[in-house]
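sorry for the late reply, my laptop died twice this morning and i had to redo everyting from scratch. anyway the thing you sent over, i finally got around to it. pasting the sequence first so we're on the same page, its 522 residues, then the predicted structure underneath. double check i copied it right bc i was rushing
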Amino acid sequence: MASAVFVFGVWAAAFYGRLGLALAHYDARAHLVVARRILDSLTPGWQQIGAVWLPLPHVLNMLPVQVDAWYRSGASAIGLSIVSMALAAWALTSFTRQTTGSTLAGALGAALLMLNPNLLYLQSTPMTEPLLFGTCVLSVLCVSRWVRTRGESGMRAAGWSIIAACLTRYEAWPICAALLGLAFVALLIERVPVTRALRSTARLAVYPLVALVLFTLNSRWTTGTWFVPAGFYVPENEALGQASLAFEQVRESVYKLSGTAWVWPAYVSVALIAIAVARNRTRAPLILVFALAGAAILPWYAYYQGHPLRIRYGLPLVAACSAITAAGVATLARPLRVTAAAAVFAWTTMQAAPFDARAPMIAESQRDAANRIGRQAVTEYLRAHWDRTTIMMSMGSLAHYMHDLTALGMNVQDFLQEGNEQLWVHAASRGPRGFVNWVVIEERAEGGDVLFQAAARDPHFLDGFERVAEGGGVALYRATETSTPNSQLPNRADRTIPSNDPPWELEVGSWELLPVRTSNAW
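ok and here's the structure:
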């Protein structure tokens, strides 16, 4: 099954690649830039991993993305997405086979994952959700094996799979918390004594706890805060402070992404699993699949906090419905199992075509299309006039545009961005004059980026620069000839890279840069 999913995934990726949609989503390009900047930067090092997006997808792609062709096309990250969906299919099939003896039900779940046009499109891009699906379903499989041994073996595999999920996307945090709780319940159903079950579950919980501690320490080191819960978006959702409306937005997003064919069979499967476990305690590991529904907590909380509505945040729940349906069908007797699998398969194929150009995820991925066209005015000016000196640009707002500029032969080291710590802090607080010859500012999206806001607060922030091009909400500034100092950052040919190990000092013009805390969220 995994090999079939892999081949189908490669075919789908080639299909969307030919349509020019593989890198259509702005976050798809931004993920490539974050992975690339770990080694390709004015100040390369582990600090470049950042502290808003979780690190595993970028660390896995860190070396492959240094190949220019793979960086520009996204090929290595797309390959990671394809492998991740194949992993999810294999883990789901193994889970149903080991808990119920049904390979057919696992194949149905894998088909549901790959036949949903939104999931299929996402696995054909460099987005990180496919890796989330793969690691989370793998965690369910490994924890179920641990439960089947009554907590006596398999803890290491279960723990490391949970760590991988927790370091991929934030949706995995409530999923893994639910998984630990359900594992405790499953052990009790297996008639493991309460104290022993509690002790075993606590030992398993050490794995994700260590991962979260390491992540928060990295956040503290790179941003000065233990966690970055906000500040990277403008609260503009009408569900701000309204729990019921936030829940309704999550529910609606799932139905828009899947229709009834994915959701209703999952509802029925919840009851089937509960009945099967009540009748036969050896099937207790089946309840672990319910943990995947914990993904709903994150978008609900985000919308409650005013995060802009993003329909793709419902996709982990579509994947959860697929897995729960597979587990539910697996509990049926063989004749009913075949009939139910055929009925669900037919329902989904009639409701949605796998390659649907009108799929909500494809529509959302093109939200930036008009701005991307508008930014061509800025790109063409740089094509004609860029002198290969450093450009100041906020990666938090314009990482996707940094990737677009690879068409001009630019690398991440050609940009002064938040990850460059001291350099960025001083240039962003005192103004870019004396640091760079070029500044690119996002003036519209999310209320404007940090440079736009700095210029709004300080009318002298852009002294010595003239506005030379604009388009797509982006403005390009160039240093005037008389204000460009000889002490500007060196160009790519003679640039020297300072050490990342504090404390360090770097002379830039008359400024002596000393180590300070800064925002390296991206």
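Residues 369-513 form one domain.
thats about all i looked at so far, will dig more tmrw
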